[in-house]
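re: that chain from earlier
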Amino acid sequence: MSNEAVLRIAIRKFGPFESAIQKQYAAFQAATGCPMQLEFESLDLNPLYETLFTSQGLKNGSWDVAFINTDWLPEGVASGALVDLTPQMQADPVQDYPQGWAPALTRLQQFDASVYGIPYHDGPECFIYRRDLFEDPTEKANFAAQYGYELAVPKTWDQFKDMAHFFTRPGQDLFGTVFAAYPDGHNTVYDFCIQLWSRGGDLTGPDGHINLNTPQASAALDFYRQMLGDRGATPPGLQEIDSVKSGELFAAGKVAMMINWFGFAAVCELPGSPTKGKVDVAPLPVGGEDNRAALNVYWVLAVGSGSRYKKEAYAFLCYLAMPEMDRITTLEGGIGCRFSTWNDPEVNRAIPFYYRLAELHQSMRELPRSPQFPRLAHVIDQAVQRAITTGDSTELILNEAQAEAASIRL
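^ sequence. v structure.
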């Protein structure tokens, strides 16, 4: 192999991913003597999807390794864009796989007996809040006087809305909550599904057909559009804010609470963070009864079917899956996926709520695993965007979304 050979990795744009991958690749080279140089490009969600799938970068050899959102795996497998890792895993097993990971983190990359990726960065979505504000005696007394009940982690979405109003103080550059409403086909879809599930609804009916015009879907969309349009609870310009930007606002101390990925709580514990030591996590609120649900979406690293360096790419994935490398992912600001990391004393000293990942995974739900799901996600995203930018009725929006989705078979 020439010393000029290069391993090319497409990374989801996020500073901790970039720093972790560079440290991990340096360790990989030191441990294995691999002479290949590392080249990576960091891309936001839509450009990442475009280069991997629309432009077929995984199939034409543009990328050897890529960050793959689990939503994209069915399409990647069906289109032949991803390498089935099973033969290599049988010849050279990944350490502790699968028992070293929660079952929720090994399901989505497995299709029948084939495995198409190794977990790299975990969620899940959870309630993230400023513990210092919620536990402050003055704040608690003021809230109880105004709303008639105790300020604590909200159990319902109505309580969540009350607390969002209570903590919104534009003069202090503080907002009650923030939503990631950037139209990238992901954030708003996830938020809608969480609202739907927590009200006892589902994307499909008993017959398996898509069913978007239900009372639960209507309640979910009504709540979401109201919150996004409420300047007494949220900052302006939410359609320009994705999950990363919303996490940055929270970490900067400008938001009291949010529904977001666990990783954005962990980032607050990095040295120099203005919210270090002030943050905690909890399960999501519910919309009725005990319909508690968290969304199971995570990032795997996969090998492109067009890569000229499949052997080297797999060797790097194996190395990344080791406990020491999973810890690096975590300590750089990502979220490691192994049980060993969740229970690691050093990690829990750095991020005091890290051990709670096991609890948060107990109510996981997953989006339909189908190559057609991106089509449905587009329909849902368009419906949500219409709801938050027009005065059209929720009933009209959902009826037309249902008609558009009727031909989709998951």
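Residues 69 and 202 are 22 Å apart (CA to CA).
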